[in-house]
Amino acid sequence: MSISRNSSSGNSGGGExxxxxxxxxxxxxxxxxxxxxxxxxxxLYMAGQRHRPAEESFGERVAAGEEPFPEVVRQLTAxxxxxxxxxxxxxxxxxxxxxxxxxxxxVRIPYGQTWSYGELAARLGKPNAxxxxxxxxxxxPVGIIVPCHRVIGSSGSMTxxxxxxxxxxxxLAFESGAEQL
Length: 181
Known about the structure:
Layout: E1 2-4, E2 20-25, E3 32-37, E4 40-46, E5 60-61, H1 69-80, E6 90-92, H2 97-106, E7 115-116, H3 117-123, H4 130-138, E8 151-152, H5 165-176
Parallel strand pairs: 1-6, 2-5, 7-8
Antiparallel strand pairs: 2-3, 3-4
Helix pairs in contact: 3-4
């Protein structure tokens, strides 16, 4: 997965406003809103998701067949069919340097496995930053593809998930083979 390291403002450096567009696709977890910024996937939001930006910030609504969405939809379909365990999509994650460092670690969590917030903080070289890691994890703009659902509490508890704990439990059960979609 390639993660673009743009500024937190999402500005492409030339002072012009980023071009955003979005589409909505069905999934076993309800409708997913896919957002692209300047041709890169920059958002995947579930209905009712915490920290979901305002709809008007997503730009023009387009068909799922318009770029860059066809490949995103193809890979999501393969993932939900149990045929894909790692996404290979260019994404642009807009956030602070610390948030992006957390999100870059999330894509390293193997399919079907989990890391604790403390383990993730330690991998960042900040072993006392588990709360900050949790806050950054919760603001991940590209759920499922950047697998923030794979982060759990130190005791194995299902703490926090922007898409809802029930979806987190279902996603982890699906990835472990315990639930069929």
